[in-house]
Amino acid sequence: MRVAYICADPGIPVFGTKGASVHVQEIVRAWRARGAEVHVYCTRLGDHRPHDLEDVAVTVMPVGKGRGATDEERTADREQQVADVSRRLARAAIADEVDVVYERFSLFSVAMSLVAQRLDVPAYLEVNAPLVEEQRDHRILVDEAWARGALRAQLHAATRVAAVSRPVADWCLAQAGDPELAARVVVAPNGVNVDRIAPVVPGTEPTVLFVGTLKPWHGTEHLIRAAALAGRRWRLRIVGDGPQGSALRDLADSLGVAVDFVGAVPPEGIPAAMAGAWVAAAPYPEQRDQYFSPLKVFEYSAAALPVVASRVGQIPTIVRDGETGLLVEPSRPDQLAAAIDRLVADAATARRMGAAGRELMTGRHTWEKVLARTIEGEHARV
């Protein structure tokens, strides 16, 4: 079985280190685990190809930065480029006579629909976010009608649509304007590679772990403030970097909190960066859009770490309060501190929660099971 994996998003290097790149790589691995021969068709390759994916065939068709005198003109040109390249990627997959086409939803791409229509093969569309609104509200979107039209074409052509969360599934249904699509939409949250992420053995010093890019929507500042409020002795380890890095270091200094800022780590380095941790934290703040399915929370549980997380969005479906971790209200450093203190003080409970989290991940949230839900429509059909 020859599978075309398509990613026309120029912001996602297929062999990169960001979360979206990890997602691409893991779905490719999951297809290969099913015996498929995968050929990746993309706009950006990246320079961190894992050893086990060195033999994957790749067709790369880059998208330029956009031409024009203004930001809007450059964005319009880039939108046109993505649309054009998506058609070229489709033609390449058609020429290769693939048996299945799987695409990670990208703005302005119609690649999957073209391959499916021409070859009459199963077609799967993975949707991870309401990208039209994200682009419009947080960046620049010139031709919104075109973006929505391309999405509708993809949705209508898909054998099945895999939405990362129920809010994203609802968004897909609203965009399609076709009630019959509901029978072909499944909710397929993110997963974790339980072979790559092994159980962590706690070290001698109580250590609380955060992994992620240092951006406002991760709420890392609340975790630093929680460390300042702690009633027990524990050290904070922050793995990742980003726009808030400098401000967060200044905040830690001003509060007198000792924080181990590890910096950015490639995916293969995450297991080592987790070593010795006692507890993991996902301190998401209050925010309007809660459609995400955070990779790091799955990885925390796969590492057998009890998770202290904000009760927002999809988190309560991943972290079972009192069973695999503790949930707190968002943007509440005091509650974060109390929950972490409780687990640091009660090692037996922390170990029990961590083990339960690991069992949940291995039983329900491996990438192979994520792909199975997509292909077979198992569980959580809308």
Automatic annotation (TrEMBL):
This protein is called Glycosyltransferase involved in cell wall bisynthesis
One Pfam family, short name: Glyco_transf_4
What keywords were assigned to this record?
Glycosyltransferase, Transferase
Q: Which organism is it from?
A: Tessaracoccus oleiagri
Q: Which residues cross the membrane?
A: none
Q: Which residues form the Glycosyltransferase subfamily 4-like N-terminal domain?
A: 19-196
Carries keyword Zinc-finger? no
User: What are this entry's molecular-function GO terms?
Assistant: glycosyltransferase activity
Q: Say if the entry is tagged with keyword Glycosyltransferase.
A: yes
